[in-house]
Design a protein that fits this description.
The complex is a heterodimer of chains A (about 200) and B (about 90). By secondary structure, chain A is mainly α. Helix content of chain A is about 85%, strand content about 0%. Chain A contains seven helices and no strands. Chain B has about 90 residues and is mainly α. Chain B folds into two domains: about 10-60; about 65-95. The chains are: A mainly alpha (about 200), B mainly alpha (about 90).
Chain lengths: ~200, ~90
């Protein structure tokens, strides 16, 4: 590769990452707005929020935090692997990240189903008869964890595309911006959960 | 061959960061058992902020990025923190 080509490659990579970061900032402020709504209502209806948050299972929340933290490490390691041209290891690590994301979603499925069994879901009669603060808590809980779960699904799709790209060689030790940007997206999913977890599950 | 000038983080460094993050999670869960009264939310958010900074700096490779990306990321997160803190202060002092 000529010096000029390497130089252009660096600029492309830098610009590509810059674009991804700007997109991530918009995502940050999307969730930031929800955090603020949560904070204000929590201050207004602290007793109701305290009571409603006790319905959430701290163990499931903690387990999901561990899944996301480990998956953040595996995706970061996959970039190291692709840089070192260790293709099979990179494939394994991205695959492991998708698996951990799947486990997160499975946990979320059980958690939501459990609440649905008790008729706690948006618009249900049980929820409508709860005090105003608890109604707001569950509304925000479903909105925030639902929007986050949607991001987890999108992240899984992006990572699966990377598996295909690594396999066919489009993502390799010289061109791995796609994997880096998908990794950045995946880390954002983790960052949002790092805030959601204490706000919803721990502060009771 | 790798892209010239790109930093390659070691597997070990990523594993160390994960251990630190898991330890902070454990502290965060344990902290709910000790009651800090009005500071409970503050303690939980402080630990969360340390975890977020750790992920951004290490896993998101910001420490090896250009000065421009470093400045932009820290600037936007500082703005984000300011928006949250100012809203809280405004709300509590009403």
């Amino acid at each position: 590769m000529s010096v000029q080509a390497i130089h252009n490659e660096r600029i492309d990579s830098e610009t590509g990452k810059l674009g991804m970061w700007i997109f991530l900032f918009t995502e940050l402020f999307l969730f930031g707005g929800l955090f603020l709504v949560y904070a204000v209502f929590r201050a207004k209806y602290s007793a109701d929020f305290h009571h409603a948050a006790e319905e959430l299972n701290t163990f499931i929340g903690t387990l999901n935090t561990v899944f996301l933290l480990v998956s953040s490490m595996t995706v970061a390691m996959s970039i190291t692997a692709i840089q070192k041209d260790e293709k099979n290891l990179a494939l394994f690590l991205v695959g492991l990240t998708v698996l951990l994301a799947g486990l997160f979603m499975l946990n979320k499925y059980f958690e939501w189903s459990h609440k649905f069994e008790f008729k706690i879901y948006p618009g249900s009669e049980v929820l409508k008869n709860l005090p105003q603060g608890e109604l707001l808590f569950f509304g925000l809980y479903y909105m925030m964890t639902g929007l986050h779960a949607l991001h987890v699904l999108i992240g899984m799709i992006l990572l699966l595309i990377n598996i295909v790209k690594i396999k066919n060689g489009t993502v390799n030790s010289n061109h791995y911006l796609h994997l880096e940007n998908s990794g950045l997206y995946w880390h954002l999913v983790d960052l949002i959960w790092i805030f959601l977890f204490p706000l919803l599950y721990l502060i009771t | 061959m790798n892209k010239e000038g790109s930093h390659i983080s070691s597997y070990t460094s990523h594993a160390v960061v994960l251990i630190a993050l898991l330890a902070l999670t454990a502290i965060s869960v344990a902290a709910t058992e000790w009651h800090f009264g009005a500071f409970t939310v503050g303690v939980a958010l402080l630990i969360a902020s340390i975890k977020v900074a750790t992920v951004i700096i290490n896993f998101m490779h910001v420490k090896h990025e250009s000065l421009f990306i470093k400045a932009m990321v820290s600037g936007v997160f500082a703005l984000f923190a300011a928006v949250i803190v100012i809203t809280f202060i405004d709300y509590y002092l009403r």
